[in-house]
From TrEMBL:
Its main location: cytoplasm. Gene3D superfamilies: Flagellar transcriptional activator FlhD. This is Flagellar transcriptional regulator FlhD. It is found in: Cytoplasm. Homodimer; disulfide-linked. Forms a heterohexamer composed of two FlhC and four FlhD subunits. Each FlhC binds a FlhD dimer, forming a heterotrimer, and a hexamer assembles by dimerization of two heterotrimers. Functions in complex with FlhC as a master transcriptional regulator that regulates transcription of several flagellar and non-flagellar operons by binding to their promoter region. Activates expression of class 2 flagellar genes, including fliA, which is a flagellum-specific sigma factor that turns on the class 3 genes. Also regulates genes whose products function in a variety of physiological pathways. The lineage of its organism: Bacteria, Pseudomonadati, Pseudomonadota, Betaproteobacteria, Burkholderiales. It comes from Polaromonas aquatica. Belongs to the FlhD family. InterPro entries: Flagellar_FlhD, FlhD_sf. It comes from the Bacteria.
C-alpha cells in the first residue's frame, strides 16, 4: 500500500469514526450535541438523519471533513498551566469554546 493510499484509508477511518460519534451524540441529545460539536441545528439535523451508506460515502472522500474549533488563543490557554483548579480551568476553556460556537453560528445565520 502506497503512502497516499494509506493516508486516504486513515482519513476515511477518521471521518467514519467522527461521523458515527456525531450521529450517536445527536440521537442521544440534539441540543447538547450541537453545543459540544459546534453545529447549527440545520447541519445537526441533516447529520442525524443520514443513513449508514451515506455516512460511509462521505467518510471516503479522501479529505478530512471536520475542522478545529480552536483558534491559537484558545488552544494556548487550554494547554497553559494555571493556578486555577483543573475543574475551573476546564470550565473556562468550555466557556471560551461556547463563545466561539456562538460567534460562528451568528456568522452562519447572517450569511
Amino acid at each position: 500500500m502506497s503512502e497516499s493510499s494509506k493516508a486516504a484509508a486513515d482519513i476515511a477511518e477518521l471521518n467514519l469514526g467522527y461521523l458515527l460519534l456525531v450521529q450517536r451524540l445527536i440521537k442521544e441529545d440534539l441540543a447538547t450535541a450541537m453545543f459540544r460539536l459546534g453545529l447549527n441545528r440545520e447541519l445537526a439535523t441533516l447529520l442525524g438523519r443520514m443513513t449508514l451508506a451515506q455516512i460511509v460515502q462521505i467518510a471516503s472522500t479522501g479529505h478530512v471533513i471536520f475542522s478545529f474549533r480552536l483558534d491559537a488563543k484558545v488552544l494556548e490557554h487550554a494547554i497553559t498551566p494555571t493556578n486555577l483548579t483543573t475543574k475551573l480551568h476546564q470550565a473556562h476553556v468550555a466557556i471560551m469554546l461556547a463563545k466561539e460556537s456562538a460567534e460562528t453560528a451568528e456568522l452562519a445565520e447572517a450569511a
